[in-house]
Amino acid sequence: MSVRAKFDVNRFLDKLFTGITDGKLAEHLPADEVLRLLNEVRRCFFLQPMLLKIGTPVNICGDLHGQFNDLMRIMDSEGFPHCRSYLFLGDYVDRGAQSVELILFMLACKVRYPKNFYMLRGNHETSSINKSYGFYKNVLDLYRSDQLYDAFNKVFDCMPLAALISGRILCMHGGLSPPMLEAKNLKVIDAIERPLPDSLINPANNQMAVDLLWADPDVNVPLFAANRRGVGHIFGQEVIDRIRTRFGVDLIIRAHQVVLDGHEFFNGTPDSGLITLFTAPHYCGMYDNSGAIVRVAVDLGVSFKRFEPTFKNSPSRG
Questions:
Q1: Helix/strand/coil for 20
Q2: CATH number of 9-307
Q3: Does residue 124 have an active-site annotation?
Q4: Which positions, given as ranges, span the membrane (predicted)?
Q5: d(CA 102, CA 17)
């Protein structure tokens, strides 16, 4: 009886970088090797809770949307994951032309460095969205395989939805949800079952999951209202204040929206207790925004690092 060889993530990363030219896969990795990576990383996500508990120091990144070259800029500046901890807030795929390259690199890093490379799910890590906004076509252009595309989404179905840094900084992709105002503690997030396929992310099944992926802050509402996106809620300062008090957190960091400087305090003031973070500069090659990351120090001090547009980021061929 043959024994299946252990997945060699270092070899996978070597082959991935060998095949990448100007941020794009000139020679793609065999589909069977990609499937092995996806099976391995799915197990990694299952071994960690839906609400990650992360220590400091850590760098936090918002939306990347297939801008692989910009992720490399960040790591060249801040350090690669063998020497630096990272938390990513979702939206790795779609819109940018390097979605496959980016997600393969990140998932391989998750396998290689499971205790200091953390990835949350974004709304684009759902099949109903990434089938229409570029990722599906990116995968088919490289691999001609619906099976591989489905395997990526099975990985996304297992990703955590939120993270708590040293018990004081709450992070998610989208935002806050009405059920959180009634919860006794943040274990309510851990209670969300996985795998969580797109078909179960709806108000009838789990409103909290919807909002963690989709909700937006809005200065014009005190509590909650329907989101103009047609999915999830918008929420105001009173919700932020009540959540911070209820769960004993100092700060909420979320992504999901382009902001000009890459980071923005809600209502323009640090006193709001909420930061929107967007890490892809020159988003889709159409916006003049900077990207940014949040650096959280050992003592929970927060600072920002901006990345000005450098590369011409082409929109996805999808």
A1: strand
A2: 3.60.21.10
A3: yes
A4: none
A5: 11
Q: Are 85 and 79 in contact (CB under 8 A)?
A: no
Q: Residue ranges per domain, the chain?
A: 9-307
Cβ-contact 290, 262 below 8 angstroms: yes
Contact 165, 247 (CB under 8 A): no
239-292 pLDDT, tens digit each: 999 999 999 999 999 999 999 999 999 999 999 999 999 999 999 888 899 999
Kindly report the number of other CB atoms within 10 A of residue 88's CB atom. 27
Give CA–CA dist 8/228, Å, rounded: 45
> Which pTM does this prediction carry?
0.95
Kindly name the residue from 28, 124, 256, 263 that is annotated as catalytic.
Answer: 124
- For the record, the structure tokens of 184 come out as 């006794």
The β-bridge relationship of strands 302-307 and 291-296 is antiparallel
**Contact of 34 with 68, CB cutoff 8 Å:** no
87-119 tens-digit pLDDT: 999 999 999 889 999 999 999 999 999 999 999
Long-range contacts formed by 109-112: CB under 8 A, 24+ apart: 109/13, 109/81, 110/41, 110/44, 110/45, 111/7, 111/9, 111/37, 111/40, 111/41, 111/44, 112/9, 112/10, 112/13, 112/81
